[in-house]
């Protein structure tokens, strides 16, 4: 079973960038970065000692794996435009089924790092769970070896389960982050320093590393403190949509409390 | 100006517990714990070497400060039942005005630690921002000295601003925690391990320690990925209220994206 050493990455967004840099750091050779857009991809190629191309016909044919890290919309287009010559091809999407790559190669799979990536922020890949899937046992083992060179938490997850994880991740990450935005807006609109909330934000996330979220819930809604909730709703008068959001979420939290205690 | 060394705490909930233990750890003397309910308070009295009483007439009159850490509903009752003999009295509420203590003593203030407390979890008080307020300059300085013996972040915040911080804290902590509960429910209902989401939860909170939340936003809604959002909404069919929540939050995030780019 040939180890994966030579890699072509396709895409130059957040995931492609962090992944290519981490793979390089793990001693892998990034042969080439392919991307339709040039600027990001060139800078990523420089950082990883890779070639760059924006021509699908110029994608090299001597890599051990082709990692497609593009948006779900672009995925079928990219997969269809490049001739992978039956080399091993994987995508990094949370929601696209593995079989979307069936037309591209006889050897295919998925490498989904379950994390939120922003270009300006470094991540420690060893802490990132990686969900993998492959069309054959041998491809699965090759992909697993690649994944464990980066991460301490590698799991085989099929396409259906991966889709569910992606949905759960929206609630675990994207929605909480939006709540932080609202908190920032409320503080800044009142000439208050958002920084004062940062230890609270961090502790809230730290708590659920050890406790069940339902047990970690605090605040007026779980206490059933109607007076405070009424006051908060009045204070949100200037922001009708956040007012409605506050009401709806407080009701849901209140019902959760009812479920756990009664 | 007499330093605050001898303390009576009133209440035995999460805040009272963590605060009394932290004050003891900072070398202060906890004279007495008063609480209407006995069990928690007795255990807290044991931990801090304090006396315990559940009789408001038995509250000692020789403390430098009386810290009332009870629910907002109980606050006026407690404040009215105890004769503080014009000693220094503070409450720990995010939302109750300072003046609620005016009837209790000529010396009063607020000591509001901006954090989420759960009994089973230890906290490092030095990392917790403390918002203080007092009715006179001297009381303010005394309270400040007490607060900096615990925390590296002590700020004077008046009652109006503190109320706003409390509201923002609901969005910064209580609502994100509820989102974690939903994520846990989605994973567990599908026989998936919630633990796989924990690094994502933590990184999402870590990101906004350095980045603005609006800049840190990722996921289908900010990308405008209608196909994924539609699929997620279909997947939530079994949970109509979370389905609605997903739609509403995604719309809000989408509008936020419109605001930043257009």
Number of helices of chain A: 10
SSE order of chain A in H/E notation? EHEHEEHEEEHEHHHHHH
Assembly state of the chains shown: homodimer
CATH topology of the largest domain in chain A: Rossmann fold
Description:
The structure is a homodimer of 262-residue chains. Chain A has 262 residues and is of the alpha/beta class. Chain A has two domains: 6-157, 3-Layer(aba) Sandwich (Rossmann fold), CATH 3.40.50.720; 163-261, ProC-like, C-terminal domain (N-(1-d-carboxylethyl)-l-norvaline Dehydrogenase, domain 2). Helix content of chain A is 48%, strand content 14%. Chain A has ten helices and eight strands. An eight-stranded mixed sheet of chain A has the order 3-2-1-4-5-6-7-8, sandwiched between helices. In chain A, α1 runs parallel beside α2 and α9 (226-235) packs antiparallel against α10. The longest helix of chain A is centred in the middle third of the chain and has 31 residues, at 159-189. The mean pLDDT of chain A is 94. At the A-B interface, α5, α6, α7, α8 and α9 of A face α5, α6, α7, α8 and α9 of B.
